[in-house]
Specification:
Distance between the termini: 43 Å
Number of helices: 14
Largest sheet: none
Structural class: mainly alpha
């Protein structure tokens, strides 16, 4: 298969991510053996590859953004790590969610932002540099913030191995992201590398689909008993994240592109990371991994829908979001 054909497939998968992952999840529910091989270290390795693809897109300029716009990015990252965990905890009490579902929802809320939010920010004319800055900063802090937040917010529900979770997050976030950055730094000038990079979005989508398929394969039978609660919790958690995130942008007097971006950054979490952590650290609570896997699928779908809404608003008002500056 030629490189051009692989690039075309990658572009298609990146464009149709929500529907492709949904199709894989539905197929695996009926044919669980299809992804029975995605377990344990294999699952962790796949997530590492996904994070490697993120690192391979980073340049020194992306880190300069952190220094050039520290307050805006700090506000975005703080909002992400404050809003989503608190919304998750509130929903678990208001809805009286089963313990397994509650732990999964809180875990999703305690994870950093996902790479998909960067794509959605681009699609809806948001501030892409701002989005990349928030995702990068939250990912860098995730090995500390995710275990500590889980220990504080879910420690009474389930035993939390904070140190073990720290090692897991470090292994599947900072290390592959750092390695990817080094690849880009030393090889980014080569034509062959740039051509290969055009294939990596498809690799990331395939990896995410494998993670979701692996969880559905292992725990899909548990979905029948908790499916409604999982859907309700994930939907409300994600939707409220968008709304409150956008409200933070209004309070911070951000430009319209930044408001859109912080809404997406807060609402869309790295649910793939949550899925792997749930499977590894909470094996006795299978619905926690299912809730994380459902979040993987729904965040991608809802992010695409929200980007479409923002674009529709631009068409209705006869213009587009003003260009972000600074």
């Amino acid at each position: 298969m030629t490189m051009r054909r692989l690039q075309a497939i990658s572009a298609f998968l990146a464009k149709e991510t929500p529907w492709f992952i949904t199709a894989v999840a539905v197929m695996t529910y009926f044919v669980p053996d299809a992804f029975c091989w995605v377990r344990g270290y294999t699952q962790t390795a796949i997530l590492g590859v996904i994070m490697l693809t993120m690192g391979m897109t980073l340049t020194k300029d992306d880190f300069k953004i952190l220094a050039a716009r520290p307050w805006d990015i700090a506000i975005g990252s703080l909002a992400q790590f404050a809003i989503m965990p608190l919304i998750a905890v509130t929903l678990t009490h208001l809805l009286n969610l089963p313990r397994s579902v509650a732990v999964g929802l809180i875990l999703v809320g305690c994870c950093p932002g996902g790479v998909s939010s960067n794509i959605m920010s681009f699609l809806c004319k948001g501030d892409v540099a701002f989005s990349v800055g928030i995702t990068t900063l939250s990912t860098l802090f995730a090995p500390l913030t995710t275990p500590l937040l889980m220990l504080y917010l879910a420690g009474e529900m389930v035993d939390i191995d904070a140190l073990g979770m720290f090692k897991s997050v470090l292994l599947v976030t900072l290390m592959p992201v750092g390695l990817g950055f080094l690849f880009n730094h030393f090889l980014g000038h080569k034509d062959s590398y740039r051509e290969t990079m055009k294939v990596m979005p498809g690799v990331a989508v395939l990896g995410l689909a494998c993670i979701v398929g692996g969880v559905v394969s292992a725990q899909g039978d548990k979905f029948a008993s908790s499916g409604v609660w999982i859907f309700v919790g994930v939907f409300l958690h994600n939707t409220l994240g968008y709304v409150v995130g956008y409200s933070c942008g209004v309070l911070a007097r951000f430009t319209q592109p930044k408001k859109r971006t912080i809404s997406l950054e807060v609402g869309m979490q790295n649910a793939g990371l949550a899925t792997v952590l749930a499977a590894r650290h909470f094996p006795a609570l299978p619905e926690a991994a299912i809730a994380s896997a459902v979040s993987c699928v729904w965040h991608s779908i809802s992010g695409a829908l929200l980007a479409g809404v923002f674009n529709a608003l631009d068409r209705w008002t006869g213009g587009s979001a003003p260009t972000a500056k600074g």
